[in-house]
Amino acid sequence: MENLKKNIRVLKEMAYLRFNKLTVSRLDFFAPFFIDGSLFLVQILAFKAIYSNTGRIGSWGQGEMVIYIGTFSMLNAINMVIYFFGINEIPQKIRNGELDLYLSKPISPLFRLTFENISPGSLPLVVLSACIILYGINILDIRPGIIQAGVYVFWILVMEVLYYDIAVIVRSVPLYIVSMARMEQIEEAGLDLCMKLPGIALYGIYKVLFYLIMPYGIMATFPVQSIINEMDLWTGIYGVFIVIAFSIITRIIWKLGLRHYNSASS
């Protein structure tokens, strides 16, 4: 409990310092919005190009796919707001020895790396994503109740944890080997595919790959299935199991990686 209170105090202080730093330069504050907004626009255009002449993808029609695009965009937006810019610097800090500074502080280095570069400039993308989700719900003409909406939000939060876990695992590779270029390429390819193609359209080896090994395929699929009443009990259990498993794997990889870490300055 004491550690939790300390982490909350540290988080508040880091958020305060980060916000002050960003407001010094208007460009630093608004640049993430323009960058993320451009990504959002590209996703919408890609969706239109791919699905404009396609009636259905598996059992999903246009409404479900609009919710899917909005959900993936929401996951990415939350990622950008909270931890992307901090986690993304892990490889560089490992290579130049700056990680030493984090290890010497009386707080979890991963906790600090996660939250020290929050990006409030990405918040408008959260709002845009929510608008897309609501538009898809309107197309389907469904009226989710409080419980159904709560379940959807639950899956958004759970899948955001999975998104975070995979990001940390990929960026922990330099703790073991020098280069992580291939891992970054695999991550980009997997995300790019799953942003355009829902998990229900994956079969065979692709389903094993994107539902189990690199489960990008479930991150937006499961929340959508929950809000359109397409998720069964076993699917829900599997989703929770995968997130727990990857959280454990992330912790192990990070802890073991720190034991292998040799300062670049030594």
Jot down its keywords.
266 residues, mainly alpha
Walkthrough of the structure:
- The protein is mostly helical.
- It is 76% helix and 0% strand.
- It has 14 helices and no strands.
- Helix 9 packs parallel to helix 14.
- The longest helix has 28 residues.
- The radius of gyration is 19 Å and the shape is globular.
- The two termini are 36 Å apart.
- The mean pLDDT is 82.
- How many strands? 0
The number of distinct helices, counting runs of at least 4 residues, comes to 14
Structural class: mainly alpha
Distance between the termini: 36 Å
Compressed to H and E, one letter per element, the order equals HHHHHHHHHHHHHH
The stretches of 5 or more residues where confidence is low (pLDDT under 50) are none
The amount of helix comes to over 70%
Outline type = globular
> How large is the radius of gyration?
19 Å
Largest β-sheet summary: none
Report the sheet-strand fraction: under 5%
Mean pLDDT: 82
Give the SSE layout.
Elements (H helix, E strand, L loop, with lengths): L1 H23 L1 H26 L10 H21 L1 H4 L2 H6 L3 H5 L5 H7 L7 H18 L5 H26 L9 H16 L7 H10 L2 H4 L1 H7 L5 H28 L6
In short:
The protein has 266 residues and is an all-alpha fold. It is built from 14 helices and no strands.
